[in-house]
Write a structure and sequence with these properties.
Blueprint: E1 2-5, H1 12-24, E2 28-31, H2 38-46, H3 48-51, E3 55-56, E4 68-72, E5 84-88, E6 102-106, H4 112-122, H5 129-142, H6 153-164, H7 169-176, H8 182-194, E7 196-197, E8 205-210, E9 233-240, E10 243-250, H9 257-262, E11 267-268, E12 272-278, H10 282-295, E13 304-305, E14 310-312, H11 317-324, E15 329-334, E16 337-343, H12 344-352, H13 360-363, H14 376-385, E17 390-395, E18 398-404, H15 405-413, E19 429-432, H16 434-440, H17 443-459, E20 462-466, H18 468-475, E21 482-487, H19 490-501, E22 504-508, E23 513-517, E24 523-528, H20 548-553, E25 563-565, E26 573-576, H21 580-585, E27 588-589, H22 596-599, H23 602-614, E28 617-618, H24 620-631, H25 640-652, H26 656-665, H27 668-672, H28 680-700, H29 706-714, H30 720-729, H31 733-751, H32 755-763, H33 770-775, H34 779-793, H35 799-804, H36 812-825, H37 832-842, H38 844-848
Parallel strand pairs: 1-2, 1-4, 2-3, 4-5, 5-6, 8-9, 14-15, 21-24, 27-28
Antiparallel strand pairs: 7-8, 9-10, 10-12, 11-12, 13-18, 15-16, 17-18, 19-26, 20-21, 20-25, 22-23, 23-24, 25-26
The structure holds adenosine-5'-triphosphate (ATP) and magnesium ion.
Adenosine-5'-triphosphate binds near residues 555 and 603.
Amino acid sequence: MQVVILSEGSDLDAFSSAYGLTLLYPSTFILLPNVLQYKVSKAISLFQDKIKDKILTKEGINFEKVDKVFVVDSQTVPDVNVPIEIFDHHPNKSLNYKGKNVKLNLYNVGSITTVIVEKIKKAKVNLDKEDATILSLGIYDDTGGFKFSGTTERDLKAFTFLTKSGLDFLKLQQVVSDTFDLEDVEVIKEIIKNAEPLPVEGKKVYISTLYRKYSKDVAWILKYIKPFEPADAYFLVVNQKSKKFIIGRSKDESIDVGKILSQLDGGGHKFAASTTIVGFSYDEIKTFLTFLTAKHQKPLTSFIKTDLPTVEADLSIEEVKSYLGRYRYVVVLQNGRYVGILNDKLINNAIKHGFSNEKAIVFAEELITVSPDVSFIQLLKMFSTYQTDIFPVVEKGYYKGVIYKKEFVSEISGIKEDKPIFLPISKPKTVNYLNRVKKFFPLEIFQTLKEVGEYAEKLGYRAFIIGGVVRDIVLNKENLDVDIIVEGSAVDLIKAYAKDKNFNFYVYPEFMTGVILLPNGLKLDFATARKEEYDSPGSYPKVEKANLFEDLYRRDFTINTLAIEITKSNFGKLIDYFNGLVDIKEKRIRILHSLSFVEDPIRILRALRFAGRLNFKLEKKTENLLIYAVERDLLNFAPTGRINLELNLTFKEENTFEILMLMDRYKVLYKLFAGLSIDQNKEKVLIKLQDSFLLLEKVLGIHFPKNSNYLYVLLGNYPEEITYNLLKKYHFEKEASYLNEFYTTLQSIKNTDSIFDIYKTLKSFNRQFLPALMSLLPEDKFKIVLEMLEKEKKPVLTGEDLIKLGLKPSKIFKDILEDVFVKYLQNSIKTKEEAISYVKKTHLKRLSNQPE
Ligand code: ATP
Ligand code: MG
């Protein structure tokens, strides 16, 4: 078997000459490259029947059976170990074939197909009409229709020969013409309009996107996109339903689009590649491609760090502790093979509970590991799935290092510098809040806090109420969620106090936290003061417990960092380390340091939730960092489970609407929900939803799940498939499972004017989602449905009325009542009298005959 191997981007001349070789030499096949010029693709589809048996793909070829390779219209040889014969018409490139068996045939002609046609003529191979047409393509195209200066008499003669064999000029024209149809023009216009540079330093890299549907393979059009022309590399993102198709092209040796797109689960080679991805927006893809293009020479493996100490699995916990040093984690190995990770808390707890001599392997946690060739997209998916700060890298069971989430996120987002944002103060401000505390809490709780403070003092600890409740004491907003922080041991304090008082309690020593349940049903949450949870790469100083300041420094916003001491001797002293009091007074949300959103992107959502709830503004630097963080897609790095929790909290707030408007303004909805924005229409629907909650709760006397209804309204305009995927993405399982029913009901009510049909549809509809359904209906249908619900609640006729008429309860009751109800809905029955006389007239006979 012989194979003509076409190189990437082959043109018609290469293709026609390759085809000619298959005619000339039996059992010769063409191996197509990944990328063909558009005209070649056109030719292949036009002459499909002729060509399909002569084409092989890389997968379909068995190289052991190949005894010769042809190369046409090029002098670059493939990496094979069989004789190679080249036919080319370009100047001799004097390539070094390094001992390969290469026969180079160069000709001075306008098209290399000409030479092959001459050979065919000489060998008297029979050509049919289609063969002749396919061969003519290369000659015609490469000589520019015989206008190019390289055209020779030989080309004309070969072409004439093909004409005599019956070449089809119409088909020739179809393939070689460069004209666009209307669809092509629209597509080109859109891609040009959307084209923009990616901020990759030192290189010209462009990106664009296409939303319009296109019936053809989009690849051919790339060379007509003007902004792409000067680019070293470019990408096109084609939007298809819930997926995105990405094509990458490069002219620059150092930008390997094959590698770049392989990081997004794609394939291809250095200069041309493509991929399909699901679940990311265009903006996100831009961020990824910027990062990957800038960093492609520096592979992801540069994120693998080997700074953590490693210990052998049979070392005792006591000994492991000495290895921990200033690190928060140690890696446990057994002969180099990965066993798991131990962290400082675990080690300290193990020692405290008398397991000092136990082996490291007993306590090591396995954690989710990745392999060194993990792709960018896989890492992203892991970050959004698992709530952990480090990922051990393991190859064939052997430990290779760890990847720190924070480092990765900060590198991709470009937010690297960490500076305090609060107004630094040397000493905390203190204010006497005794009276405010006394007034704020019910006496019982106040007494309890005093007692807890006495116990704390006895044990030599300090105790504080902190966070949300203190913020709300300052704001004078009701809040009985009391969080207590202990400098000392929260667990011991709980045990001492609750046992004496005979209160129920739970403690979680491994977390150094616990809860006391008060007899009045309220609970007090306790935690031991601790440090920063989010670590910088391995190097955090290890401290068993922390003081109040350190505990507060890891918190989200200054307004949540206030503490009021309850230790007996300082009871009622408000402590303000970060100027939280001023920020509350000035009504602003301020993060504590510039990497705050990088450390925990959920804070983006929290910031807007507090701003919307309290009617506060974002402090300027915080606002800029938030905008930047959203723009750089940090929300992608937040575990989707936490996004679910945070959204549910948002829907539970009184000011959900305000919060959603903020989430819209700061493009958070856009990022979370595939480009969602709240336009005027959606704003109206949201307001209608709020009214519907109130109205329906009054009419029906039931409560509705806020989250489901908000989600259906927010995502109600998307095609069902997209909404479904988004709901699934953020773990709204219930909402996803009812979505189809919801959409179907909505559509059928919209599409009918029959009161009866609407009633029927509504009857089987899950009432939980009524507020969303009604808000999405046009006004007239809204009224109809509302009237239906009201009438349903107060029916014109009941079973009792029928009994009063002297009828015995039976299965037919239901039918009669429904019949009357429908008439009532249609207004042909308006009063009970009318209903009764209707029943007498229509049903009485049948009923009096009913069997006993
Ligand atoms: P709410 O009134 O909504 O309960 P809160 O301030 O009490 O407001 P919680 O979610 O109950 O908020 O959290 C308790 C405290 O924990 C907060 O006051 C805050 O200091 C801290 N906190 C919560 N989430 C984060 C986070 N993502 N990053 C840093 N600190 C946080
Ligand atoms: Mg709280």
